[in-house]
Structures are given as C-alpha cells and as structure tokens.
Automatic annotation (TrEMBL):
Organism of this sequence: Halobacillus litoralis
Chief site of localization: membrane
Keyword S-adenosyl-L-methionine carried by entry: no
Signal peptide (from-to): none
Compartments, record wording: Cell membrane
GO cellular component, one term: plasma membrane
Keywords attached to this entry: Cell membrane, Membrane, Transmembrane, Transmembrane helix, Transport
GO molecular function term, any single one: transmembrane transporter activity
InterPro entries: EmrB-like, MFS, MFS_dom, MFS_trans_sf
The Major facilitator superfamily (MFS) profile domain, residue ranges: 11-461
Membrane-spanning ranges: 12-37, 49-69, 76-95, 107-126, 138-157, 163-184, 196-216, 228-247, 259-281, 301-322, 329-348, 360-380, 400-417, 437-456
Membrane topology reported for the UniProt record: Multi-pass membrane protein
Protein name: MFS transporter
C-alpha cells in the first residue's frame, strides 16, 4: 500500500472518467448494427455479437479482477486495462472485415472488464466508511448513465457520420486518461501476491462464460434448444468445480466466503433483482417501441435518456443520504417505486404515448437510484479490507449473471405469451400482451426485493466495528 500523499478527489475523478468510457462501450454499438450489417454484409444474428461478445468477455474478466487487484498495483492495473481497451478501440476503428471488428470488441472488453471492480475497490480504500455512500453514489452515476446514453449517442453519430467514428471518438479520451493517470494515480490497494492458478482461471472463464452465453442462447433460441441446454450444462458443471476448488484453496482466486457475511449476501441478491429489472426494462421497452409501435431506434434510445439523467443526478444525492441513514429505508422506498412503475408498464397498449413511456421509465429510474449503489455499499461495508476486491468482483459478477438470466427469462416469457395469445381472439395485440406479462414478472420479482430490504442493516467492517465500540465505551465512561 502506498505511503505517498495523493489527492482523493483527482484520483476518484480519473477512475470515474476511465470507467465511464469503458462502460459506455457496452451499448455504444447497438444502433450502429444496421450500417455495419450493410457495409460488411453480415446477418442480424452475426452483427448482434458486437454487443453480446462485449458483455460476455466482461463477465469473464470481472471474476478474475479480484486476483489481478491483489497481484498488481493500482497504477499497473489501471494503465494496463486502459491500454488494452485503447488497443481494442484502434482495432475496431481500422477493422477491414467483420471478424477483425469482433476481435477489436473482444480486446476492448478485456480491458473494460477490470475497470469497474478496480474503481469500486479503490473508492472503498481511499474513503472512510462514513463517506463511502457519497463516493459510491458517483459510481452509480457512471453505471446507470453511461450505458443509457450509448444507444442515443450512437444513433446520432451513425446518422451523420460513419460508425467507425464511434471508435475514433473514444480513442483520444482513453489516451488522455492514461496520460493523466501517470501523474495522478497512486497505489492504494493491498497486495498479497497470490500465486497464479491457471486451472482456476480456465474454470472461471468457462464456467461464468458458459453460463452467460447459455442464457444469451436461451433468449435467442429458446430454453429447449440443444445448444442452450449443452452450454448451460457445461457452464454449471464447470462453475461448480470452480467454486469447490476456491473453497479448498488457502488463497483462492475468487473468495466465495464473502457470502458468510449476511448483509453482503442479502444486498447482493437485492442488487441482482434491481439490475435484472433494469436490463429487462431496457430490453423490453425498445422491442415494444420499435417492433410493435414503429418508433425509430433513435426515438427508443431517446425515451430512455431522461431516466438515465435522473439517475445520474440522484445517485450522488442518495449516496449522501445513505451516509446519514443507511440503506434500509432508501432500498425499501426505491424498490416500492420500481415495483409500482413496473406494474404500470404491465398495461401498455397500441395507443400508449411516447411521453407516457418516457415519464414512467424516468420514475422507475428514480427508484433505482435509491437502491443500486446504497445496497451495494452497505454489503461491501461489512467486509474487512482484505476481502473488498473479492466482494466488488463478486457483486459485479452476480449483477452480470442476473442481467443475462433476466433477459433470457423475460424474452422467453414475452415470446411464449405472445404465441399463446395469437389463438385468443379477445387479445387484439398478442405481441404487446407478451411485453405486458413480462413486465408483470418484473413486478413480482421486485416485490421479493422489497421483502429482502427489511433485513438490510447498517454495517461496518470488523476492524472499524471494534473502533466504533471502543469510542462508544469511552464516551459512556466520560
């Protein structure tokens, strides 16, 4: 750990900027897919991999990040991650054909996957417990705002410029951040230099990668597809072997014992439920608007934008509130708002206006800003410092899994319900009915989150807990 003086605000701003441009790239290609299909002569299924592969490699890299954070210094890891991301950006920008473009996205994602767990770990190291809510609130701003502006930004750019400009726009930002990091960033993470365990890395990659890819296949091909069943089976078996191996190891690559801490376990489930609903809504609303109501991709991106702006504005505020009152009340109120808005989305019809969709989504995101980072911070606050990298990696991994599972389940519910409704003459628009039932499922899952929120209590790391108790004893004695 560093003994050099450092500026917390500058370090935090740098990490936020780096994470913002890497997370932005998760959704930046969505509305650029049609012109890429035309230029490179590929099908929609193939082109969709530009987004899918980014999420997939992200999901593989996040569990490995706990090992990397303990093995390399903050500066080494940040500069390497941003460097890899920049190389991927160049490869994407100059790609002469589709396979080259896909390789560029894989390389980009390999660098991006480390950034979020690294940022969370550093924030929890440099800020005291009573300021962590505010600090993590800014992370919430990045997590919610960056992916939400991706579709609208890429829609605007691809209308007036080439899709390649999406890469050339990001590259100078990435290089500038690397230069600034050289002067600003200090080493703050605690290094334990764990031994490289190639078997654990392979098992983690195949296990988490197989699970995420399996759920993606389930959403596209259905749960009964041979490919879906095979990939999910391989993913589950490999992941089970990986978990058993980690529990037997003295210095595991990813520490599953973080779930022994009850508040961390409960808040991780709540974060999964919330993120599942977020990704579910971001999938269902564009499908409804574009496929069933003939809005453009740009318009559907625009409908989601005010919600993202509200979350970006509210996240730092809810972070400050968390520092004063804890996560329980925030999470309960926020999940109640999410549940109410999800229920309202269960009554979409052929005449629902653009304004109604935008306002409802904005209300839903207002609720989400009260839940996501407060519960994540409450869970991580219970962990001792040495387990924070593992907690951050585990929390992010579980959110990725929840997003994949949620998308697959909701798309299946939507399509199956729509197919069944086609034979019912009383239902005028089977496709819209499918979306409504999918939102009803989101509502039911959110209700479970409200119940769990009552069990969230204010926590302190074991070492800080002891200090707090001794301070209280001194005050009583006085």
């Amino acid at each position: 750990m560093t003994t050099q003086p450092y500026n917390k605000v500058l370090m935090a701003a740098l990490l936020l900027a780096g994470s913002f441009i890497t997370i932005l790239n998760q959704t930046l290609m969505i509305t650029a897919i049609p012109p890429i299909m035309e230029e490179m002569n590929v099908s929609a299924n193939s082109a969709q991999w530009l987004t899918t592969v980014f999420m997939l490699v992200n999901g593989i890299m996040i569990p490995v990040s706990a090992f990397l954070i303990e093995r390399f210094t903050t500066r080494q890891l940040f500069l390497s991650a941003m460097g890899i991301f920049a190389v991927g950006t160049v490869l994407g920008g100059i790609a002469p054909n589709f396979p080259s473009l896909l390789i560029g996205r894989v390389v980009q994602s390999a660098g991006a996957g480390v950034m979020l767990p690294l940022m969370q770990t550093v924030f929890l190291m440099i800020f005291p417990v009573n300021k962590r809510g505010t600090a993590m609130g800014y992370i919430g701003l990045v997590i919610s705002f960056a992916p939400a502006i991706g579709p609208a930004l890429s829609g605007w750019i691809t209308e007036d410029y080439s899709w390649r400009f999406l890469f050339w726009l990001v590259l100078p930002l990435a290089l500038s951040i690397m230069v600034l990091a050289h002067f600003i960033l200090r080493n703050v993470t605690e290094l334990s230099y764990p031994k490289v365990d190639p078997i654990s890395i392979i098992l983690s990659s195949v296990g988490f990668g197989g699970l995420l890819y399996g759920f993606t296949l389930a959403g596209n091909q259905g749960w009964a597809s041979t490919d879906t069943i095979t990939v999910l089976f391989i993913g589950c078996i490999t992941l089970t072997i990986f978990i058993l191996r980690q529990l037997r190891m003295r210095h595991p690559m990813l520490e599953f014992r973080v779930f022994k801490y009850p508040v961390f376990a409960i808040t991780t489930i709540i974060a999964m439920i919330t993120f599942l609903g977020l990704i579910g809504a971001e999938t269902l609303i564009p499908l409804y608007m574009q496929n069933m109501r003939e809005f453009s991709a740009f318009e559907s991106g625009l409908a989601l934008l005010p919600g993202a702006v509200i979350t970006a504005f509210m996240s730092p505020i809810t972070g400050r509130i968390f520092d004063k009152i804890g996560a329980r009340l925030l999470a309960t109120v926020g999940l109640t708002i999410i549940t109410g808005a999800s229920l309202a989305f269960s009554f979409l019809d052929i005449e629902t206006t653009f304004t109604s969709i935008t306002v409802l989504y904005a209300i839903r995101m207002f609720g989400l800003s009260m839940v996501m980072m407060p519960v994540t911070t409450a869970g991580l606050n219970q962990l001792p410092k040495k387990l924070i990298p593992h907690g951050a990696a585990m929390s992010n991994t579980m959110r990725m899994v929840a997003a994949s599972v949620g998308t697959a389940i909701l798309v299946t519910v939507m399509t199956t319900t729509a197919q069944n409704a086609e034979s019912n003459s009383a239902i005028a628009h089977p496709d819209i009915h499918g979306v409504n039932i999918a939102f009803f499922v989101v509502t039911a899952i959110s209700l479970v989150g409200i119940f769990l929120a009552f069990f969230v209590r204010r926590t302190y790391p074991p070492d800080e807990q002891e200090e707090k108790q001794s301070e209280e004893e001194v005050q009583k004695a006085e």
